[in-house]
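I have been asked to look over a protein record a colleague put together. What it holds is a sequence and that sequence's fold in token form. Please read both lines and tell me whether the tokens look consistent with the sequence. I do not need a full report, just your reasoning and any doubts. This is what I was given:
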Amino acid sequence: MRKLTTSGMVVAAAFAAAAGLAAAPAYAAPTWTVTPGGAWTAKAASPKLTDTKTGTKLTCTSSSATGTLQSGSGLSGTGISSITSVGWVSCSGPLGITFTVTPQGLPWSLNAVSYNSGTGVTTGTLTGVKAHISGAGCTADFYGPTSTSSATLTGSYSNSANTLTLSGGDLHAYNVSGTCLGLINNGDAATYSAAYVLASSQTITSP
């Protein structure tokens, strides 16, 4: 009789635990509020692409970007904004080589992940990034971890500074040719850093 009672208690406990797990609320992703939202333009001074293996740096005088930001409250952080166009001016590298940088795969998606109410800074990612560089017989593509995948950069937006900061990322060089070889090599990891100041104020918050 004791064995039956003990077994019954074990079974009952198991059912209770299962019921408790079923009743537990699922994790809810944070929602976001954006004011005013809509189209935006921004400019960055001295954006830089760095080959982290060779130390080669490609620096531009400036970069301009435009995009669209969602508007309202209760928004998903995924695709909260996008970069629809981006361009770079007067880019140069070692030995005085000048480069033209062409974005690929636009629009790129900006995704909000977390919010610090103390600093008013949203952190997240920029996904879908691909670019091609060419100049003085040197060409290369910068994609993600593979030659067919796009890269992801780390991003943050400051409400007080109206600034979108991009850094790091899993960029890699592919299809490297010409005078680039030795300065940039196939498979080299690279990072991009830039601080884009928006022309008009945008505020992003999360509860």
About this structure: The chain has one helix and 15 strands. Residues 138 and 179 are 5 Å apart (CA to CA). The longest strand covers residues 121-135. The first helix runs from residue 2 to 23.
